[in-house]
Amino acid sequence: MKSKESFYHILRKISIIPVIICTALLQNSSDSSSGIGVFLLVPLTVSIAMFEHEFSGMLYGLLCGALWDLSSAIPDGIYTLYFTVFACLAGLFTHYLLRNTLISAFVLNIFGTLGVCMLNFIFNCLAKDAADIWNTIKFFYIPSFVLTVVTIPFIYFPVRFLERKIRTKTII
Amino acid sequence: MHRYFSDTKFKITLCITLSLLMGIFVAAVSDSGSSPFSSALSVVMTPLQTLASEIAEKLDSFEAKFVSSGVYEQEIESLKQELDEYKALLVDYEKLKQKTEAYESFLEVKEENPDFTFVSANVIMRDNSDIYGSFTLNKGTSDSVQKNNPVIYGKYLIGVVKEVTQNSCTVYTLFNPSVNVSSYEIRTREDCIIEAQTDFSKQGILKLTGLSRSTPIVSGGIVCTSGIGGIYPRDLIVGSVKEIIDEETDISVYATIQPAIDYSSLSDVFIITDFDGKGE
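Structure tokens for the assembled complex are given below, as produced in the milestone run.
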């Protein structure tokens, strides 16, 4: 029985990794002919951290950030550090302060996406002394922020389903 | 939450964060610009990313089939407009190219004949009822053009001005039976006369008469104006000998001449208004 529990425990931990890899590939391989980016890894990190809490969430956040760092234009390691810290904080807040609901996911996602946009803005616009910053904010960052925030239900519920399904099997 | 900060897991989290900070520093100072962790992860992820890109490309082309026809219509319209613009540019280019070619040969003629006085002219009308291909140019007496001025295209004789008004003139081509040109074959130096006959003109060839029975002229010989008569300057090319034929009415022979230029396709020509030996 204990071995079965530990098997499902490991299975739950491992089953999230392909989801993270697929989401990272989807985010960084899709055609962005519209010029707007959807940061799928942010709502995914939030959703996973809310269910896995601070330590495991931090490790999954590390993986999400590392996968994004592979294709990002900002200095290497920035996203890894950001997602590690953010996922840890999201897990902490969900474990001790917030309830694990869609509203909490929205709130955490808003802050997470804001952080990603600011990082991106600092390294791509301010650091490179880019011209026409206001238009970049208006036509890229704001639409990307809005699109990323609205994707949280499409990611939160499947992650919740996966987590609960495997937890139920664990209990049984 | 206070328990978490005293827990081992928090210390591990702190160590990981510090090592990530070190990784950022290493990435910043290294030649590759990437941290060791990213380098290790990329070994696993690069094949997956390649596969994902290929799948994304295939999906893009699949998605294109579901794009509304309105989008394609707009694209077609803009491409048509672009094509029309390029066609117009191409027409302008071809015109400029022809003008350049004409001016280049004009320059050559001018350098060889510094005594020539030219007026450039454009073909503005063609008489469709005229089987000899006469045409009207946009220069007249106001440009010093006179009757019997030779008309050339580069080094080639085209015809002669037969009617002049203030601003235009009508040119008879060499196919017109009323136009006779004294000429010679450049290799044999044999004098002859270029005439036009209706049946020959319909075939686009001229008749070279005045040849002796034992003429040394052969097919391929170049025929030029001789300057005799004072109407046409010397050494303007008329055409090349096509064949030597026995005359039916007497024992002489004549040759058929293939003009060097297609008169029906000309648009820019030059009128020689003056030259040494004119009227002599």
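Chain A has a mean pLDDT of 82. The helical segments of chain A are 2-29, 41-71, 78-96, 102-126, 133-150, 152-171. Further analysis is deferred to the final report.
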